C-alpha cells in the first residue's frame, strides 16, 4: 500500500493555446481538461494506473467535486472534511509545451481539521510501504507540518518521500538532523534555495551537461542528514544523490505538450521502482521515464505503464569529481 498525502488538493483545469501566451491579449482556447489534482493525488493516480494499491489522503468536504472526480478516476481516498471548497488551479499550455500556472491558495484550515488530518495520515500509514507527502500547505497548516509528520512517521515501518517547496521545504530541511525522509524531490530552483546556490547557474550547467554543481548542492543535503535527493531538471533529466553515490539519467527526445504533473510522475516512477526492489540507478531511470512521458502528454494526463520505456532513458554513474 502507498499512502499519498495532499494537504492542498485542487481541481486542475488545463487550457491549451495554439499561439504563444501574450499578456493583455485575447486568446482562443483549443481545449480544456479538468482533473482531480494536487501533487499527492497525481502520484496516487499514476501509481494506480500501474496497478499498485494506493490511498489518497486529502482534505475535502463530503460533497466536494474533487471526491466525485476521484471516484470517477478509480482513485481510493480518505477525505478529512473541511469548511471550504477545494481550490481550482489553472494551467495554460502553449504549443511548444511552455506552461503558465495560476494556483489558488487553498481553503483555510482550522485546528480541529489539522488534528484530524494528522491522525488520518498516521492511521493510514500503519502497514503502508510508502507514505508520499506532497505539495504546498494551505492557510492554517504551519510550515513545519511536513517536518513534524516525517518525525512522527519515523516510528512506522514505512518509507517516506516528500515533494514540497518554499517555507515547508526549508522547515523540512532544518529538521534533517533528527528526522529525514527517505527521499526528497526538489527541482533546481528548490535545491538552490536550500543550499545557497544560484538556480540559474544550476539550470544552465545542467543544460550544458555539467552536473557537478547540482551534485555538489545535493551532497550538502546528504551531509545534513538527507537519505536521498532526487533533483528533477526538466529536459536535462534528473540527478539522484545518496550516501553511496550519484547518478544522472537523461530522457529521450520528446515533443513537450504540458509540464503539469511531470514532476509528480517522476516521483511516482521512483516509488514504483523502489517497490520493485530496484537499486538507485534504476529508480532514477524509472523516474525520468515517467516524467518525460508525462511532459509529452496533453493537459494533466499521467503515464500508463504501456507508455513507459526505461530502456530509452540513458543512466550513468557520475564520477567522484562530479560529487
Quick take:
This protein is α/β, with parallel strands linked by helices. Helix content is 35%, strand content 23%.
What characteristics describe this protein?
323 residues; alpha/beta; UDP-N-acetylmuramoyl-L-alanine:D-glutamate ligase; 4-stranded mixed sheet
Total E-strand runs: 14
Distance between the termini: 34 Å
The number of distinct helices, counting runs of at least 4 residues, comes to: 10
CATH architectural arrangement: 3-Layer(aba) Sandwich
Using only CA atoms, what is the Rg?
19 Å
Main β-sheet, spatial strand arrangement: 5-4-1-8-9-10
Explain how this protein is built.
The chain has a single domain, classed as 3-Layer(aba) Sandwich (UDP-N-acetylmuramoyl-L-alanine:D-glutamate ligase), CATH 3.40.1190.20. A 6-stranded parallel beta sheet has the order 5-4-1-8-9-10, with helices on both faces. A 4-stranded mixed beta sheet has the order 3-2-6-7. It contains 10 helices and 14 strands. It is of the alpha/beta class and 323 residues long. It starts with a strand and ends in a 6-residue tail after the last strand. Helix 1 (39-49) crosses helix 9 and helix 9 runs antiparallel to helix 10. The protein is 35% helix and 23% strand.
Amino acid at each position: 500500500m502507498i499512502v499519498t498525502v495532499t494537504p492542498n488538493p485542487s481541481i486542475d483545469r488545463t487550457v491549451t493555446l495554439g499561439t504563444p501566451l501574450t499578456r493583455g491579449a485575447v486568446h482562443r482556447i483549443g481545449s480544456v481538461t479538468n482533473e482531480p489534482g494536487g501533487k499527492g493525488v497525481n502520484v496516487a493516480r499514476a501509481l494506480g494506473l500501474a496497478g499498485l494499491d494506493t490511498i489518497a489522503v486529502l482534505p475535502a468536504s463530503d460533497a466536494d467535486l474533487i471526491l466525485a472526480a476521484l471516484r470517477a478516476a478509480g482513485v481510493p481516498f480518505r477525505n478529512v472534511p473541511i469548511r471550504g471548497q477545494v481550490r481550482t488551479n489553472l494551467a495554460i499550455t502553449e504549443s511548444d509545451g511552455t506552461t503558465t500556472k495560476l494556483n489558488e491558495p487553498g481553503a483555510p484550515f482550522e485546528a480541529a481539521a489539522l488534528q484530524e488530518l494528522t491522525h488520518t495520515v498516521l492511521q493510514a500509514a500503519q502497514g503502508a510501504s510508502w507514505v508520499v507527502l506532497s505539495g504546498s500547505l494551505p492557510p492554517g497548516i504551519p510550515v513545519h507540518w511536513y517536518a513534524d509528520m516525517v518525525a512522527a512517521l519515523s516510528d512506522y515501518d514505512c518509507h517516506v518521500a516528500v515533494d514540497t517547496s518554499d517555507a515547508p521545504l526549508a522547515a523540512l530541511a532544518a529538521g534533517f538532523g533528527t528526522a529525514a525522509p527517505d527521499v526528497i524531490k526538489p527541482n533546481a530552483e528548490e535545491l538552490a534555495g536550500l543550499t545557497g546556490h544560484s538556480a540559474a547557474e544550476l539550470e544552465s550547467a545542467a543544460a550544458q551537461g555539467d552536473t557537478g554543481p547540482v551534485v555538489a548542492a545535493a551532497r550538502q543535503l546528504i551531509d545534513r542528514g538527507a537519505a536521498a535527493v532526487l533533483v528533477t531538471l526538466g529536459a536535462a533529466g534528473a540527478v539522484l544523490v545518496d550516501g553511496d553515490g550519484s547518478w544522472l539519467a537523461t530522457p529521450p527526445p520528446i515533443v513537450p505538450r504540458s509540464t503539469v504533473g511531470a514532476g509528480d510522475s517522476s516521483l511516482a516512477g521512483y516509488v514504483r521502482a523502489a517497490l520493485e526492489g530496484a537499486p538507485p540507478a534504476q529508480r532514477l531511470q524509472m523516474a525520468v521515464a515517467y516524467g518525460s512521458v508525462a511532459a509529452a502528454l496533453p493537459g494533466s494526463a499521467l503515464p500508463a505503464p504501456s507508455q513507459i520505456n526505461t530502456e530509452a532513458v540513458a543512466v550513468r554513474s557520475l564520477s567522484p569529481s562530479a560529487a
